[in-house]
């Protein structure tokens, strides 16, 4: 029998395969493809209830109790832990300049920044250049697919959902951290997320609680921002390979 870690990796790979073969839809950079809207709206209502009952009040308490320098330190530390994964995606995209830049940033913040709690690199002119496996798939020519709302995690697309699963598999830090320390990493990540919820509370609340249709507003906000991050202009992806379409032809 495979070791536990290998079984987990195999399970995740199978999950990725199922997502690749089960999700369909054209990539419309200037529009919205949402064939799962009915299911997505149900998930959105659950997420909304979770935010109202737990995340919003918890983030408010987190931001009130902890002073800003402490919150920033936790956020910086969490961000630094994700940097090796970003470097790996830079390499997969053949962005060697970004890989060198982000490696330098990781080394500087890990050493001079005391494990990343202090963002010394940005002050030294080495700002973060973000990336993830969803972007890698985009660079490789895979379309964004359908919009999906994930439980707890919120808005995504089939491409970014697959990317998120692969990010977990390929996370170098996650593979190196001993199992008895992973709880600490998870706690830091959760605290950083609460800090983000607190920092952007006005924007998030305006989308979730002040719009006539919070689902449609959140969907539009996510897609527009994600496409901007990927540098997608109107109609740009029309000629890219549709990984999902063959299943439904």
Order of helices and strands: HHHHHHHEEHHHHH
Structural class: mainly alpha
Strand order of the largest sheet: 1-2
Strand count, sense and barrel status of the largest sheet are:
2 strands, antiparallel
Percent in helix: 55-70%
Mean pLDDT rating: 85
Q: Give the terminus-to-terminus CA distance.
A: 38 Å
Gyration radius, rounded: 19 Å
Strand-residue proportion: under 5%
The rough form would be described as: globular
- Uncertain ranges: 238-249
Would you give an account of this structure?
The protein has 249 residues and is mainly alpha-helical. The chain has helices at 4-22, 37-65, 68-81, 83-92, 96-111, 120-123, 133-140, 158-170, 172-176, 182-199, 201-209, 214-229; strands at residues 147-150, 154-157. The chain is built from twelve helices and two strands, in the order H-H-H-H-H-H-H-E-E-H-H-H-H-H. Strands 1-2 form a two-stranded antiparallel sheet. Helix 1 packs antiparallel against helix 8 (158-170) and helix 3 (68-81) packs across helix 10 (182-199). The longest helix has 29 residues, at 37-65. Residues 238-249 have low confidence and may be disordered.
